[in-house]
Amino acid sequence: MISVTAIADENAPGRHGPTATVEADPRKVGRVRTEYSPAHDGDPDPGEIVWTWVPFEENDGRGKDRPVLVVAREAAGTFLAVQLSSKRHDGDREWVPIGNGPWDRSGRDSWVDVDRVLRLHEEGMRREACALDRMRFNSVRHRLRERYGWS
Asked: Among 41, 50, 113, 134, which residue has the least CB neighbours within 10 Å?
């Protein structure tokens, strides 16, 4: 269930303006080099889970503040990421299980949606997260490479 505060928070990082989180067509983003380079420096890095506003797929102005896994840095200074969900997914979309971690206070298992790629701006992210371990990051990276031909 979506909380009203998640939808109503007009000031959520990544929700509006030039630093808004948007969906990116993974086949049209150009050459992508995924990397694992988390650094405990307060800045978002590939391999880290960060929180940002993620628009609902209907693109009707609604959305939710949620965790995403940063998978690549773009030359323009933006980042590519994939969203996490604690809801079990066995449907027609591609979800990679990553287990649980400190990004979910309830300790629930999570899945990463590799069908939906997001473009993030550093100013549009909150850095209340953690680095995903290399093994789980590599399982997501592997699926992205298979699906989109990313290196």
From this structure: 41
